[in-house]
Amino acid sequence: MTTVLCLAMIGSTGFSQKNIVSKLKKSEKQTIVVYGASVAATTSTRIWVDGLFDALNDSYKGNLTCYNVSKSGENSFWATENFKDSVLSKKPDILIFGFCENDCVERFNYWPWYSGRCAEYMIDKLKVQNPDAIVMMYIMSEFPIGEAAITRPEITEFNNSYRDVAKRREVILVDFSKDFKDIYDSQGEQELKKYQGDGILPTKRAAQEVIIPKFLKIMGVN
Fold first, then answer.
1. End-to-end CA distance of the chain
2. Which residues, at least 6 apart from 59, have a Cβ–Cβ distance to it below 8 Å?
3. Where are the alpha helices (DSSP H) in the chain?
4. 10 has which bridge partners?
5. Domain 9-218: which CATH number of 3.30.420.270, 3.10.450.50, 3.40.50.1110, 3.40.630.30
6. What's the CA gap between 138 and 162, in Å, rounded?
7. Which is nearest to 4 in space by CA: 148, 135, 176?
8. What pLDDT is recorded for position 63?
9. 44-74: per-residue pLDDT in tens?
10. Cα separation of 170 and 78, whole Å?
11. What residue spans define the domains of the chain?
12. pLDDT in tens, 126-178
């Protein structure tokens, strides 16, 4: 966790930071759930999830119950269909989710607004169960490389649907697209591949230098 890059977030972040930190410091038990696709699910890409869980529990003496219920290859349709069994059944106090990078794959034939509509559905369902729950949506990429770029021609539009929902619903958006674009712009595609091999899937280096530090910064845990 050596580098904290440019912070870009939308929403009632200060309130949520205070909420998260105060509850954990008071030794109140909390449940955190991460819900995503391949960027959070596979052995090589879920490093950031495991590292975030470890860092939070190290800071707050094991008061977090942590679940990663992500699944590779899935999208927002699967996410909404399985939200009750995968997420609500865990009764989260903090939910971190993101599916844009798969929603925008051409073969799924979705419109960009679909990502936002599904995000709102999940926010609404969680808030019915727990009005005090904290929601953090993430955007992992906006600059895919090679085949990933060919299959995701409208990734920016899909990401924008998340940005719109986060602003309108006043939830936290953790947007890594600028962080990785800065690496690409300053050091080129080969350097970006050290963080995202295809411009989508994060590496161990990305987890340690970008993703985990940024989440901890937003959550007020540095």
1. 10
2. 24, 221
3. 13-25, 38-41, 47-59, 76-81, 83-86, 100-103, 113-129, 147-150, 155-169, 177-187, 189-192, 204-206, 212-218
4. 173
5. 3.40.50.1110
6. 8
7. 176
8. 85
9. 999 999 999 999 988 887 888 999 999 999 9
10. 24
11. 9-218
12. 999 999 899 999 999 999 999 999 999 999 999 999 999 999 998 999 999 99
β-pairing verdict for 172-175 and 134-139: parallel
In this structure, what DSSP letter does residue 89 have? G
Task: Please name the amino acid found at residue 177.
Answer: S
Which residues are paired to 68 by β-bridges?
34
Q: Could you tell me the strand order of the sheet in which 134-139 lies?
A: 9-10, 172-175, 134-139, 94-98, 30-36, 64-68
Question: How far apart are the C-alpha atoms of 70 and 72, rounded to whole Å?
Answer: 7
